[in-house]
Amino acid sequence: MILLIAVGIFAWLAIQKFKYSPPEQRRKLIIQWVLIALALAAVLLAITGRLHWVGAAVAVVLPIVNRLWRMFGRHLPWIAPLIAKHAQAKAERDKAKQNPGGEQQSHSESASQNPREPQLTLEEARKVLSVSANASREEIIGAHRKLIQKFHPDRGGNDYLASRINAAKALLLKHLDN
Fold it and tell me: What is the pTM of this model?
């Protein structure tokens, strides 16, 4: 009974602190309280001799988490283009906010290129092909060949990834020629 009263008092104090804390600190407080609650629960279970139930629950959950992780990993190539598009759109918005006059330039440059091809910077192109800044023509072509064989639409990849790989190769080779 005393334990329940103590838990009630701590819960009431935690709620009061949460109400009067700034919004930036609320997430931090919640994470701290959850970790403290888990630690107290583990101590209580250890004292009462029921900690083995936690071990059994973890043993049941780990294979499920492993299977979900593999399933998520298998679908990651489909998720990656969405993340890349979102990041690129955010970067363009940030760039437009910083340099309103530069937006006109980027539209005129992109109009001269193929509008269906994804727009890349040199740094993004190097990341896509996983090559260094001073990569040779052969390294770029080899990295392109390796990736396009893996992510070509005819081999289970998708059009977006293949177009990003091709655009990265074209941009890096064009940069080498200049």
Answer: 0.37
